[in-house]
Structures are given as structure tokens and as C-alpha cells.
Amino acid sequence: xxxxxxxxxxxxxxxxxxxxxxxxxxxxxxxxxxxxxxxxxxxxxxxxxxxxxxxxxxxxxxxxxxxxxxxxxxxxxxxxxxxxxxxxxxxxxxxxxxxxxxxxxxxxxxxxxxxxxxxxxxxxxxxxxxxxxxxxxxxxxxxxxxxxxxxxxxxxxxxxxxxxxxxxxxxxxxxxxxxxxxxxxxxxxxxxxxxxxxxxxxxxxxxxxxxxxxxxxxxxxxxxxxxxxxxxxxxxxxxxxxxxxxxxxxxxxxxxxxxxxxxxxxxxxxxxxxxxxxxxxxxxxxxxxxxxxxxxxxxxxxxxxxxxxxxxxxxxxxxxxxxxxxxxxxxxxxxxxxxxxxxxxxxxxxxxxxxxxxxxxxxxxxxxxxxxxxxxxxxxxxxxxxxxxxxxxxxxxxxxxxxxxxxxxxxxxxxxxxxxxxxxxxxxxxxxxxxxxxxxxxxxxxxxxxxxxxxx
Length: 456
Known about the structure:
The protein is mainly α. Helix content is 60%, strand content 5%. The radius of gyration is 31 Å and the shape is elongated. The two termini are 53 Å apart.
């Protein structure tokens, strides 16, 4: 059976391939090979450029261009060649080294440098930098732009609905009103914080040999300041240098990275569930799309499937991320291989998040506010005004204010008429009675609008 979107085992490459295909150029096996080849070539260029110490002739621009073309022209045929070598070596990085040596041997000038390919490197020197560059690109080019779309959407909703009142539900019961915009602004503010944090997470790399001490480097060339060379090389790739490691870069930054994304995702799960509930209460309608079907047997239904899909995929992503957060910073002594297969699934866990973000954005684009339902529900719950009334009663030192409102409202049907009658019978100044009578469930929203303006 040929591999296709229909025959793929994972829905990432099957059902949801359209949402995740952008990640193939970062996290596929082909791309992983290309990233590692790029690092091998850049390290090789760095080494042979130390010509004032190394006993070799100066290299020229055309030699550098020859090397650059190896990575520029890297294709699937090259990747297959590396995988064929790997079948013999049973070692992926060694296969890459042999492939690169074969390419470089075609240059007479560079032939003299051939044994400096993969000089003083352990496999993890190459792999950790490749993952760092992959994560950086995924963050900067895919994750953060999608987060920004979600943030901008919630920002617009917060502003648009900042003065539309909504009956709050604490413990699922009618509670002090807010506004739709303010409730969405709560989520806007939370995810905006995570956006700012993710941008600042330092992505680290190391290239310091088998146990992080430059042993082989110094054995070969003891007069070179290898720490300086290492730092220059890592920072030239626009990532940060980790100066102290074992054989592996300890992956703490990856745990921080996924910790931030996991929290962002958890906030979105919270949001998905709230919107799902508001749709159920008919506070939001979903736009009708004629060719879409909500149920295979119930023609009337428009199900909130985008929010459900988003919630499910966020959960899958977080499950994998939480394993990585707990696993990756742990390695037995100077190195064990238990992180290797976990790291290869970075693209998988990010894929589930990307699917979820697209589903959420699709769902948001279909929402229409139902102001009538919001107002109707508020008007059925005049009992929520027991809060302001008893608060004013306390101000004027009326004893047992809370208890009196509890007796009046709890389990009773309260409407405008009997609430106003209760207010009229209070022993408080007339102007206070008039002020209380002007309060309704629809306008008892406190500083909700002001908070939206300040937060947004």
C-alpha cells in the first residue's frame, strides 16, 4: 500500500495533513538530515578557517561556495544515499559524515581537509544544534504567528463585545454579571503573557565533545582557544551558547519551551470549553454553512465541532509535551540514549497543537453573538442583584443584610417588580433607593468595560 494521506497511520500525515504539512520542512526525516548536514558543513568551514593554526593552505571563496552548494542542492536522492549508508553503519551521524566526505572528496582543494569533517565531534554535538535550529524555526515561523492570530482574534472580540452584558455562572449557577468582552479579555490577557514568555525563551546549543570538556579538541590542537571557537560557532547560528554540559545539551530549555506551550494550550482548553458552553446556552450562534452537515441523523444540528476538535488535539499535544518536560532534562551520568526517540517526536507534539490552533480559529470565525438570548437570561435572574442591595444595606448598618436578602431571594422567583418593592421598603435614604432601582442585571457590570480598555 502506497503511503498517502489516506493510508498514513497517523492523522497528522493523514486526515490533518493540510494543517501540518508546513512542519514537514522542519521535522521530517529529510529535514532532520538536512539540518544536521548543514551543521556538519558549517563546523567544517569553521575549522578549516582557522588556517593560521592548522597546517593547511588558505581556502578561497570558490571552496566555500562548493561546500554551500552541497547543502543548497541537497535533495531526496541524497537523503536516500545517507539512509543506505546508515543501513551498513547502523549509526545515523556516521552515515552523514561518510556522505559528506564523499561529496568533499570531489574537490581537489578541499581533499586535504577531508579528515577535519566531524572534527572532535560527538553525535550529540550535531544533533543538539539541529534540534535547536528546528525548534527555533518552528517557534518563530509557525507557532508564534498562529498564536498571534488567536490573540488578535480574541482582542477584536473583546473590543467588539466589551459592553454586551452576560450573566456570569460561578459553580454553574447565576452570578454577578460581566460583559462578553471582559470574559474574552480574561483569556486574551492570559495567552498574551505566554506569547511574550515563549518569544524570550533562550534556545541553547553546545559543541564541546564527548563529555563536554573539549578533550579531543585539545588533543589535536592544544593551542587553540576551543571555548572561544565553540561560542563563536553556536552564536553564529543565532542560538545561545551553553558553556557547561556533559555529552548532551541537557534539554532544560526544551522543557521550558514545552512548559510554556503546554500552559498556553491549557488556557485554550479552558477557552474552548467556555465557548462550547456559551454555544450550548445559545449565547453564541454558529454561522450556517449550507453544504456542511452537523449530524448524520439530526438535520437541525450545527455542532461546535471545531472547539471539540481543538480541545482533543490540545490534550494530545500536552500529554506528549508533559512527558518530554519530565523526561528530557534527565540523563544517566554523562549520557544515555533514552532522550533520542523522545526528541524525534518533537514534530509530532507540535503538530497536534497546530491542528488545534487551526480548528480553534475556524470555530471562532463561525461565531455570531446572540444578544437577545443574553438579555433574556439576565432578565430572568434579578436575584443576582441581591449582591448590590445587601452591600448598600451594610453601608447603612442594617443588621443581617445578607440574611434578609438570602431569605428574600434564595429559591424564589425574583423579578424587577418584587426587587424594587424590596428596595422601597428599606430604611435607607431616598436617593439611595432611586440609585438601586436604576441597577438591572443588564447594567450591573462594574468596571468590565474599563478593564477591557485597560487590558487591550
